[in-house]
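User: Please fill in residues for this 182-position structure.
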């Protein structure tokens, strides 16, 4: 299992409509061979589409923000170094991408609908590379750096300044990774 935190920037058609933002995520990998692993995860970027809008309701004004969700599904090849104390990896696979405007809810007891919020989604692929070092003798806890590139197409309603047309999307992220192996 891996948790990651870093920065992400939109490229290609997105470069005019997005700004660099924070991305957090997590993934689970099943290592079926010493050098190969199957992965699935979820990465979430916050505010990259620059949505800063408000919804005026009968009970008050609520902030609308944007989130970008990425679901990578693939694998990686792993090369152990220094007797298995360090790992270098590279891989890729398919990715589902969804961009949404979300309303900041006033309470967890009831929800306010957001008729002004829009969503767009699509499919693509991703590639990744990185390294990590085990922090203990039992080789259970890891710390590392990685990069992930998402490429694909999304379509749907306009989101912030992003137009409501099919776009060629590229996202590049740099990540600090913390992992646990069991």
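Assistant: Residues filled in for all 182 positions:
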């Amino acid at each position: 299992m891996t948790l990651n935190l870093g920065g992400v920037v939109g490229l290609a058609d997105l470069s005019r409509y997005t700004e660099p933002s924070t991305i957090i995520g997590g993934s689970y990998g099943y290592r079926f061979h010493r050098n190969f692993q199957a992965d699935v995860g979820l990465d979430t970027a916050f505010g990259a589409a620059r949505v800063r809008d408000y919804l005026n309701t009968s009970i008050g004004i609520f902030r609308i923000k944007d989130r970008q969700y990425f679901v990578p599904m693939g694998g990686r090849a792993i090369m152990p170094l220094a007797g298995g104390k360090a790992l270098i990896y590279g891989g890729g696979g398919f990715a589902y991408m969804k961009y949404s405007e979300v309303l900041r809810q006033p309470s967890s007891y009831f929800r306010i609908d957001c008729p002004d919020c829009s969503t767009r989604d699509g499919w693509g692929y991703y590639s990744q590379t990185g390294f990590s070092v085990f922090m203990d003798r039992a080789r259970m806890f890891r710390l590392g750096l990685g990069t992930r590139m998402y490429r694909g197409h999304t379509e749907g309603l306009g989101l912030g300044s992003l137009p409501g047309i099919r776009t060629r999307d590229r996202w590049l992220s740099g990540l600090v990774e913390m992992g646990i192996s069991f």
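For context: The mean pLDDT is 93.
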